[in-house]
Specification:
The protein is an all-alpha fold. The protein has 11 helices and no strands. The chain has a domain of 185 residues: MetI-like (MetI-like fold, Orthogonal Bundle), CATH 1.10.3720.10. 81% of the residues lie in helices and 0% in strands. It is globular and about 70 Å long.
Amino acid sequence: MTSRLQSSLIPKFLALSIGGFLLLPMLLVVVMSFGEGTSLRFPPRAFTIDSYIVYFTSAGWMVPTLNSFIIAGASAAITLLVTTPAAFAFALFDFPGKRLVRLLIMMPLMVPFIVMALAYFFFFGQLRLLNTMVGVVIAHACLAVPIVFLIQSANLKSFDWTLVRASQACGAGHFRTFRYICLPLLRPSFLVAGLFAFITSFDETVIALFISGRAASTLPRRMFESVRQESDPVVAVVSTLLFAVVAAVAIVIAWRREAGRSRSATRDLERE
């Protein structure tokens, strides 16, 4: 009995310890976001919400925040539009050079970001796309392509293609088959892939430092410049707000899963 109790408590203790170790730095940042002063300090000498007021009333912070959401949303949409046909083609057809094409799609994961940033800097300079949101969107979309492609390819491997053949045998065209058969079944994978593409773009800093400039500055670039130049406490505010959004999304997802499980359990009891 004692050995069983210990074997059940040890994994829980390890999980809580690791979770606490990962969460503690974020909690320190949350505390610092309410600190008084013009620089980051722990522990704070006094507590205030002045840094939050500065963030929400300063164009120097709100414009990069809006730019990041626009760029991340656009790059996620472009990535899905590009990778979805590619993933279907790889799942359905065999063609010469298939492995080579797959390797080329995976290249952004293999090349260091600093190398890609330099390449984009010189290439976009020739196309006059430096310091533009279009250039940042294209670069971030290319960066997210391999991640989204892997997610979609993994889901298509377990997809039941007999449903597609049955739909086409009943007279449905390719578009109707995708709209009414593939899309409903693959919607979760599309949502996950789009979320990863959005996060990849929203969190990217190195390439943005090289090609975004002042005109298309993103939030990570603004945070980097703020920490490097003045250690602005508003950085802690941004980190706290992002942490709150992620925590809220995680809680909603967990609540929906638990609600779905309870509904399914209720249905099973009603059937019995």
